[in-house]
## 1
Amino acid sequence: DDADSGLPIFRYLQRDAELVGLEAELFARVAEIGAGELDLRLYGDRVRATLDDGERLPRIPPRRVGLRVQYHDARLVTGIEAVRYDAQTRTAPFETPTRGYTLLGFDVTWSFRSGSSRPVDLSVKGTNLLDEEARKHTSIVKDLVPLPGRSLSLGVRASF
């Protein structure tokens, strides 16, 4: 620890490591509804990382699985998405475990052309609708600062 601030001091060294992972995604059009389509996206990923001596690497993300259902046509895109992050208990020295959490969100974007025929997008987005206490294992400040709680945002985007 630093004598003046009391903060820990770390020295990082490059060493040989092995990373093994898997990433997969399934995307399918489920139905045609009016002038638009209903899509389904299922995805997930996982990685294991160790140094050659078997020690675990720090800040390796936990397994993640997500599902998104989305409708879109020429002017509207709307969807709902749930992502499950498992607990990360495979920690490196000086690292703390992270609890698992599920993030649920939705979004709606409506595009229209203004009088000058330039696109304008209006959007509404909700994140962390379950108001979970979520901490990203990959964050160096995860033990101090969680991800934001439930939020709603409104937006306007114009091209010129």
## 2
Amino acid sequence: MTFDEPLLSIRDLVIEIRGRRLVDVAELSVARGQIVGLVGESGAGKSLLLSSILGLLPTDATVRGNIVFDGLKLR
């Protein structure tokens, strides 16, 4: 990992639960030292997005896409 690469990179993230798509193609890149806030309407998928980074989604969730944190591929 170099300082040019983002600390967190999310690409093409799709989250479905029980066949229902709840997050549709999320993209996010966070540089080292950058502060980011997620805002949106209730039910927009903010908590699901963060839960997917932490690996805390329900067992019936289907996740596609890439999540890389500090050079480690989480998904």
## 3
Amino acid sequence: MNIVSLIPARGGSKGVQKKNIKLMAGNPLINYTIEASISSKKISRTIVSSDDNEIINIAKKAKAEVPFVRPKELSGDKVSDFPVIKHCLNYLISEEEYIPDLLVFLRPTTPIRVFNEIDKVVEKLINNKSA
């Protein structure tokens, strides 16, 4: 199966500016989510969606894919998750002719997750007959 994880990480924030790359135990916060996604046995691609060059560079250094820069109109405080997901899927389909079977949305502000938790959730989604 083609399973993509999408990590949303915009530069602006009402509370803590650039919170996604603030250091936590010596590493940028986003790195923990990228590492868990890349370590997953179920995730085929780890994609970061960002509007911020510093976040993009950190994500690439951590071995995440950043195939596009998120448009400013999808980077504001009031933008919900769905338009960000739709933008990513539209890009993958139109620019790469790549259609994932499943998309896993991983927030970088939830760093205390490990790859096997991601794998367990993906397994449940795959095995759920009602989905």
